From TrEMBL:
Keywords: Membrane, Transmembrane, Transmembrane helix. This is DUF2232 domain-containing protein. It comes from Paludifilum halophilum. The chain crosses the membrane at residues 12-36, 48-66, 72-90, 102-123, 160-180, 201-221, 227-254, 263-287. Pfam families: DUF2232.
Length: 301
C-alpha cells in the first residue's frame, strides 16, 4: 500500500476517533464510548502498526489542543492499545474472530488497569473517590448495626478485587468492535473473522495448570497483601474464564445428546440465577479444559 494511502487512512481514523470523542458530551455517549477503539482497529487491520502510530500521535495532539486535559490522553492510549491489538490480530491470515476478541479483551483490560494506575499516580482523583466511598460506607455501617450486624464487610477488601472485576467492564469493547469492524473491513476486501460456535470454544490446557498454580500460591502466601491482590485477581479472572468454558461445555453436551436450544438457554439462565449452579458449571469448565473428556465424547459419535 502506498504512503499516500497510509496517510489518508490515518487521517480518516483520527477524524473518526475525534468525532467519537466529541459524542461523549452528548446523549450518544452511551453508544460512542464502546466504539472508541474502532478507528485504530480499522487502520491497523488495513495498513499495520505504522499507520496506527501516526493516528495515535494526531489524536493525542488534537485531544490536548481541544480539551487542554492530559487525562484525555489516557482515552487515546486505551483506544489505541485495544484497537491496535485487535487490528494486528485481524490482519494475520491464520487468526480467527475468537483470537481477535480474546486479544482485544486482554488489551482492553491491561489498558484500563494501566490508565487507572496513571490516574492514581499523577492525580488525587482516586483519593477523593476513596474519601467519598468511606463516608458512604460509614452510613452503611450504621444501617448494618441497626439491623444487628456487628462486623460489616471490610470496605478495603473491595480494592483487592477491582482489577479482576474490571475485566467484566471491558468485555463489550472487543465484541462490539469486532462485529462492526468486520463489516467495514469486509467492504474493503478483507476476509471476515468470526467467532467460533460457542459449543466449540475451548481454553488451552495451560490455563488449567496456571489456575491450579495460582490457587496454590494464593493459599500458601495469602498473608502477603501484594501476593493476595495479584493472585486474588488472577484467580477471579480465571474463575470467570472457566465459568464461560463450562457454559460452552454445557452447550456442547446438550448438542451432543441432541437437546434443543431451550435447554441451553435454561442452563445459562440458571447458571446466572443460582450460585450453586454457577459453581458446578465452573467445575465443568475445569473438567473440559484439564481432561480429554470432550475428545472421547466426540469419538463415540
Amino acid at each position: 500500500m502506498s504512503r499516500f494511502s497510509d496517510i489518508r487512512d490515518g487521517l480518516m481514523a483520527s477524524g473518526l476517533f475525534l468525532l467519537l470523542l466529541l459524542l461523549l458530551i452528548t446523549p450518544l455517549s452511551l453508544i460512542s464510548v464502546w466504539f472508541l477503539p474502532l478507528p485504530f482497529l480499522l487502520v491497523t487491520a488495513r495498513n499495520g502498526w505504522h499507520s496506527v502510530l501516526f493516528s495515535a500521535a494526531l489524536c493525542s495532539f488534537f485531544s490536548l489542543l481541544f480539551t487542554g486535559q492530559p487525562l484525555f490522553l489516557l482515552l487515546v492510549f486505551f483506544s489505541v492499545m485495544t484497537g491496535g491489538v485487535m487490528g494486528f490480530l485481524y490482519r494475520k491470515e491464520t487468526s480467527t474472530g475468537t483470537d481477535v476478541a480474546l486479544g482485544g479483551l486482554v488489551a482492553a483490560w491491561v489498558g484500563l488497569l494501566l490508565s487507572g494506575l496513571a490516574v492514581a499516580f499523577f492525580t488525587d482523583v482516586l483519593a477523593h473517590i476513596q474519601t467519598i466511598w468511606r463516608e458512604q460506607w460509614e452510613m452503611t455501617q450504621e444501617m448494618f448495626r441497626s439491623a444487628g450486624v456487628d462486623e460489616p464487610f471490610d470496605p478495603d477488601a473491595v480494592k483487592m478485587v477491582i482489577p479482576g472485576v474490571s475485566m467484566l467492564f471491558t468485555l463489550p469493547f472487543p465484541l462490539l468492535n469486532l462485529v462492526l469492524g468486520r463489516r467495514l473491513l469486509m467492504r474493503k476486501g478483507l476476509p471476515g473473522k468470526y467467532l467460533l460456535l460457542f459449543r466449540k470454544w475451548r481454553l488451552p490446557r495451560g490455563f488449567f495448570y496456571f489456575y491450579l498454580l495460582s490457587l496454590v500460591v494464593l493459599l500458601l502466601f495469602s498473608e502477603s497483601e501484594s501476593v493476595g491482590i495479584a493472585f486474588g485477581n488472577i484467580v477471579i479472572v480465571l474463575y470467570l474464564l472457566f465459568f464461560i468454558q463450562g457454559l460452552a461445555f454445557t452447550v456442547f453436551l446438550l448438542h451432543r445428546f441432541q437437546r434443543g436450544k431451550g435447554w441451553a438457554f435454561a442452563a445459562v439462565f440458571l447458571s446466572f440465577l443460582l450460585p450453586p449452579v454457577m459453581v458446578a458449571v465452573h467445575f465443568l469448565g475445569i473438567l473440559d479444559t484439564g481432561t480429554a473428556i470432550r475428545n472421547r465424547l466426540e469419538e463415540k459419535r
